[in-house]
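> @MW can you paste both from yesterday?
MW: sure, first one:
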Amino acid sequence: MRTVGVEEELLLVDPDSGDPKALASAVLAHAAQDDPGQDVFEKELFGQMLEFATHPQSDMADLGDEIVRCRKEAARHAGEIGCTVAALATSPLPVSPALSVNERYQWLAERYGVPTWEQLVCGCHVHVSVESDEEGIAVLDRVRPWLSVLRAISANSPFWQGRDTGYASYRSRVWNRWPSAGPTELFGSAEGYHRRVADMVATGVILDEGMVYFDARLSARYPTVEFRVADVCLCADTAVLIATLCRALVETAARDWRVGRPVADPGVSVLRLADWQAARFGLEEDLLDPVTLRPRPAPQVLASLLEHAGDALAASGDADRAAGAVEELLRRGNGAREQRLLLERTGSLRDVVTECARRTQG
């Protein structure tokens, strides 16, 4: 059974006003004092963000329990400092980001200017184990058309600097301002992948391999494929669904590679259009079907994803759980829809943030 790990970036906010608070260093210091051996929480680019990483899990119920536990622990540590956490991919309220004290982050700010200061965005990264770099590249080449569907499922960033952007995942539009972000062409082999990464670093435009911000990539730290396309999800069960689908996509792609099935090769230009469509509308309108790359209702595309990965989902015992989670997601809506419904009900973005902070903890 392939193992799966999840990294979530959370927004630190005032529990009463909903304003983002640049208190990550204080929260991390409290966490270290409370548990000197903790390696779960880390700082991010801005002081208003806190990241945690789960351990690799093979059982999705265990992964879900750990995500909930980490969110609650993050909220507990934040509460000791006078703030709380919210699983929001962008701040609905106006914010002036506070750059974390870090030589690498300072380099980014000096190198890229204004776009760096606009990167107060929170994502969900899913690591799925692979047996080798060759298997990993075979997977990356085959999952490309499905990444936009994961974007639509996870979309949780409709608001930016106090206004509705019109997008379900505005985080993705901000993130794609990095020069190395977005969909990729086919790599063909591990050698081809590593040569491409080396060429990118050699240009001097990016600092190092860690700045290869592809929507999915080989992890530089672990023997995994790392999916980086998702917004941080408002509800933990949506994060588990994303992780479940990522593992099933990896297993499906690896099986296709082993039996020699050919790789579909939609161009990067079309993949960018599919990604834009998913970011703009989430699950509310048509997506581009990953097979035909033509518009198709979002529920039908999600059904196609479950069918495409059906054998892998069945083999891991996740088929019923995934189908039920998709049904619930379509009924309830993704995080973007939930945020907009909260604003419609309360009339206040501050209330949206404080309610989302409450929901973040379960």
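MW: second:
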Amino acid sequence: MNQKRWIALAIAVGLLVLSTVAQITTTVATTDFTEMFQTDSEYSEEVVEEGSLNESVAVINVEGVIQSGVTGGVLSAGTYNHDQLLGMLDHVKESDQYKALVLNVNTPGGGVVESAQIHDRIVEIREADKTVYVSMGNTAASGGYYISAPADKIFAHPATLTGSIGVIMESINFAQLADDLGVEFNTITSGEYKDIMSSYRPMTEDEEEILQTMVDDMYNDFVDVIVEGRDMDESTVRELGDGRVYTGSQAAENGLVDSLGSLDDAIAQLKEDQDLQNARVVELNANAGFSSFVNGAAANLFGDQLRFAQLEEMIRESNSPRAMYLYTE
């Protein structure tokens, strides 16, 4: 390698080092370390409206696909975290300072079990004599509607996509492709149905019947949740619950939501309905702590690599069929 190429390589390495240092410096400079290492509470409050501390209204965001763990992959920041969400709901239920909750829902739904866990927490908060309103964002479909159903009132934007009442279970079957390529799969099971819904072979009629029975059971649970939460006739719910999505306006016409409006409208109406005009309104979040700083720095430095790792994780998960309360476009 001649001298000019060595100089060019040195310059490239130097620029890479300077870029890395600059990104780290930016992350450090924009980080509030005082708040980061604050350990008085597991949760932080961002004040939306000033008011009485002892009459607080909590706003909790449900953003992204509802599923266990932290969506978005390893070292991701600002993603859906199921355990943290459940913890915040428990915190609202147990703390005397919170008199009401506004759940800000923007999700296409997700796992059946996870959606049921959130739903149950909402029911428990109401049983603790605390009011729950829901504000629907761009999408509050399937599991997003499931978790909204037990609320005292539901607000939606006219253009919100909601509904999609039902259950979906799917997997990819590439048996024909494997046959065309001459690929053979050897599978040993302990029972006839152990590899049910396998991607490596066509599904039998018996297997389809078994899975349909499971989906029907979970759909019946979905219907019951709406019947109880919305005080609607079962026949009406089943008529509306054929899997289709509704706009917020259509949902209001069909009784699936109570009012059309924004998050601010939901908060204002709750304060008026519950005589909480002097209440402080806070957005509740889990304290990020030092791990968030590390994750943010890693995302800045290794963004492309992290996104590739997330894609690999999604592919692995797609090979594990599961029942979902999920709206898919």
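> thanks! The first strand starts at residue 43 and ends at 49.
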